[in-house]
Specification:
By secondary structure, this protein is α+β, with helices and mostly antiparallel strands. The protein has one domain (39-163): 3-Layer(aba) Sandwich (Glutaredoxin). It is 28% helix and 18% strand. It has four helices and six strands; from the N terminus they run βββαβααββα. The strands form two sheets. A four-stranded mixed beta sheet has the order 4-3-5-6, covered by helices on one side. Strands 1-2 form a two-stranded antiparallel ribbon. Strand 1 and strand 2 form a beta hairpin. The protein is globular, with a radius of gyration of 15 Å. This is Glutathione peroxidase.
Length: 164
Amino acid sequence: MAPTAMFYDFTVLDNQKRPLPLSLLKGKVVVVVNVATLCGFAPQYYELQQIWNLHRDKGLVILAFPCNQFGNQEPLPAAQVAAQVHAEYGVTFPIMEKVYVNGPHEHPLYTFLKNQQKNCLGFKGIKWNFEKFVIDRNGEVVRRFGTDTPPRAIEPYLRELLEN
């Protein structure tokens, strides 16, 4: 029987298509979020940036994955997404390569995340942009927050993980 996959087993690409082995994030608290610049929830970029500013020096990492699967709300290439959200929202946390989060072409990381944490109704699928997965310092996927949960609402939870 093959060993069970872990968060740290995956490698993702940044917006310049450079590999980032997630094993480099051992000991960090990580938020993985699928994003789209044309989405009505795009102002969540502001709150994500505020959380990043508050906690990055304490070991928080935010990885934002552009995705065009929901209403074609992310038509830009990932590098352009990074430039646009930096200009519009002041984003300095990592914007990764564009991915699929559902379906036959979904990124293996998202397959893993969804298998670890179902949504509040018990479904695995990502329902919309700005779903957030939280990974603790041990690489465990400990929470999943839906689109309608603003980042400010998860900040106390992140702070608790960072302090423990």
